[in-house]
Amino acid sequence: KKTMVVPSLRQASTIVLVRRAANEGYQVLMAKRSSKMKAFASVYVFPGGVTEDVDQEIANRYSPNDSRGKMKVTGIRELFEEAGVLLTKNSDNADLAHPVSAPEWQDKVHNDPGKFQSLLTSLNCEPAIDSLEYIVTFTTPKMEKRRFDTRFFFSVVDDASINIDGGETVEYKWITPIDALRENKNGTMAFLPPQFYVLSLLSKYSDVDGLIHHFKNVAPPTPILPHSVGFENNVLSLCYPGDEEHPEYPGKAGDRRRLHCTMPMGSGGYRYEDNLASRL
Q1: Considering Cα of 231, then 237, then 238, then 239, what sign does the dihedral take?
Q2: Which end of the chain is more exposed for a tag (fewer CB within 10 A), N or C?
Q3: Which spans of this chain does the record mark as coiled coil (predicted)?
Q4: Other beta carbons less than 10 A from residue 249's beta carbon
């Protein structure tokens, strides 16, 4: 019997950038991946990417006691590379987004992540590591060829000037979580299961204060490693921790916590099944 070789995991971070909107609501920044990308072409994502050595050095320098410091720096750096938004500490707690002439520096940092420290030094500023609140960790299923262990964070800005890099991502939109879920259901906005999960979680909070209060005070969900539990009628079913069939975190007999994904993945729509009393 052939043993399945499970590809190794790469550490990655994603930032859900939250912008206060009219009527006390909020929107999140989502970027559309290029149609030319080998993986997940034309789907909407939150800005993010894989960790680099420089991220640990920067975390040690500016926030040595934060256990998630390295991953937060990864998110901050990738948000800048992809969207031109630099989250920095401000002495007067004004808007976090630093007005930096983005395109030239975006290219530099994209080509050499080590240049991110040079950017911070030249602007005489610190990355706003403390501004990031942890949401959840998603791990790519073992059946996939390229696998990531991705931490999702969010940070709130009053507003931010966006400059999409035009390489991996080609356009962006600010959208409420509820509208994003609606567009996905209508087939007009494709995104993958982790984005569906995070947007569903955020959609429960109608204002920024409620959002912040929740994630500061509630224990985070178990890291999510989805497992395939079947494919029929063009629908892939993934079980999440707490489901009776989840290998690492099984629930009791009859417990269901599943995402049913209609193909094509991302644009076919989702149905979430959860008969457990707790949240997502």
Answers
A1: negative
A2: N
A3: none
A4: 15
